[in-house]
Amino acid sequence: MTNIPPPAEELRLLDWELRQLEARRAQLLRRRAWLLGVLRAAGPAVPPSHPAGPAAPAPAPPSAQNVLLTLGGVLLTIAAIAFTVVSWGHLGIAGRGAALGVVTLAALAAPALLLRRSLRSTAEAVAGLGLALTVLDSYALRHLALPETATLDYAAGTSVVLATLWAGYGLLLGELRLPLPTAVATAQLPLILWAGAVDAGEHAMTAALLVTAAFDAALALWAAVRSVRVVAAVGGCALGLWGAAGAGLLSLRATDPTEAARAGVLLLFAALIVLVVAWRAKETWTAAGAAGAGGLLVVAACGGVLRTVLPPEWTVPACLVCGVALLTAVRAALPRPVRIGAAGASAVVQGLAVLWALPVAAVALIGPLGWVTRIWTGTPRDARAALLVAPPLSHPLLAPLVLATVAAVLLMVSGALSRGSASLGSLFGSGAAVYPVIRYGAPALVWAAGVALPSALRLPYAAGLAAQMTVAAILLIVTARATSTASALTASALALVSSVSVAFLSLPTQAATLGTLGALTALFLAACVRTARRLPSTPGGPVAGAAAPAPHGPGAVALTACAALTYATALVCAAGAAAGLRPEHIGPAVLTVPALAAFAAARLGPHPAALPVEIMAAASGVLGLTLTVAHAPTLALALALCGLIAAGTALRPDRRPVGYAAVALLLLASWVRLASWEVVTPEAYTLPATVPALLIGLLRHRRDPEVSSWVAYGPGLALTLLPSLAATWGDPHWQRPLLLGVAALTLTLTGARHRLRAPLVLGGTVLALDALHELAPYLVQVAGALPRWLPPALAGLLLLAVGATYEQRLRDARRLRNALGRMH
Prior knowledge:
By secondary structure, the chain is mainly α.
């Protein structure tokens, strides 16, 4: 390859360019050195020799100054401590007093001079030293002049003096930021230390905590200095929580009304503190939280007193009454955050009361499940004995009372909101999350109360069962008449839960079981029909010209439909068991349910309720088949019936794929019947399926000539050829291999004649394997008679021949592949 220019010429050009670059670099370096010399001679402002760039920021002098001053103040404080503790004994009384007085006065007076010279950081450091020295002065005074004074008494008095001194010092030198917060922090101690010094008792200690918290709250609300407000707020929260917790513990431990009243006064005092904070706070949620805490403290105070007056089981209902009474503050002329807090506190109390009562309703729902192991063993003595589980409360009647009370409150609030109450509207604002709780919480609580009431009243068993059935019926009526999707879905879900409990509750006697299951089937079926009629008949919407349906969704329809079919299936099973039938005889009877469901789904058409009905019908069919598994002839009958039901469903244009399931079920039915007759010939199982499959494939191929033969004929041919081939390899007789070979040869010729890939490939493969099976004994004999070296030699010759004609064999393989590819 020729280079332009030649390599020698190109190398010469490159060397010339490099010399030019070196010369230019040397010129630039000389110019740079000259410029540096000129700048050095001009003055000290010489730029750095490195390339220009953003200069590193120098440390800010104030920050460095603060660090140095802080370190200096710490070192001076340490020195003062060491002097007081170690060197104090070497001085006399006058020397000690003079030393500490002079140093303390100097440290406290120096900041005033430093502030005049605008040395604020230095003044802060020296002031901190002075504050520390005052503490050392008090320590020294205690050991020097007042050695007999009690430690806690002296600490309480000293904290008062120091807090007052530091507060006055901070007010005098208003530019200092340290003295006032330090004074506030020290002011937390006097009352607590005094209560401990005089051994005032738990009530006095709690009162001291709350009084200190009140002082902190006042400072946090009205102090002008931000640091004072922060320290006071932190101290007030800590001491207030401590005091409120202590007062609550005293209320819980009270055994008579007097002790409970004393603890209640402390709780009310704590409530007064937080309510003042709520009234004066500027942030909405801070005020609301404080008001809510105050409301809870008021309820705790009243409930603590009522606990000692009323029986123990009435404590929660009494607290609930107090919590409901808090709602009167919602309509009072109070700031909105205070009303929000009162409503929140009432909601918390009511929620806790509901949690206390719900276990009774849960036992009423879950308790009957135990009858599944005691079916038809006899009528229990009453509704409470029918639960098989003891209620969690000694007086379970209080639980429905509490649930009904909370439900009534929610209904009143919901009614006031629906009437456009100004006070409630301004309270909740646009709280979209609150409205569903209020709207749907009341019906749910009423339902829970109705579930728990029969066992709580110890009604007779029949009356309790009727009451539970009535609850389910009312919910289904609500479902059918609901005007919104959420209402219908909520009511249907509650009805389903209640009906499950009723169904298990009916298991003690045969008559109750049959009657209850029949009633539940009828109720859910009626609700399903009524609700389904209010849905649009097509997924896209209502039919043109028809009345606009209620805004229902398919959820309620699906629940009621599935429940109706479930209870219908259970009714058939229970009726069969009552008639003395065995499970394998009950199974075919159960299939009447999916048959009727399939008919109903066909009548519904594209209605949204059709799919849930069909799914539940399939589940019922599976149950019917499961019951017949132990008896093969009955299982075959059940499979055939299921196949007929599926075939009828497949007649619908939108359910054509169900036809595959119908074919599979009918095929399984025939196989189970043959197995019950002890038929072991595989062709008896495969040919009844192969012939219809080939006929269906032929019809499809005629309708669509472009369809692949693998799709049209492959499954049917493989269903017979492959099992027969497997049986042939273990068959010592000659009839099956001969018939299989003839059939495979016929398929191969037919595939070649009509250019069908599936018959050609399957037939040829089976024919080759069948011939190999028949010739195998002779090949073994021939191989045994040949010399041992001959097979390797023949294999080598074969490989040589293939290698020599490799290109031709490759072309032959490609032609064969192309020929097969052109077939259907």
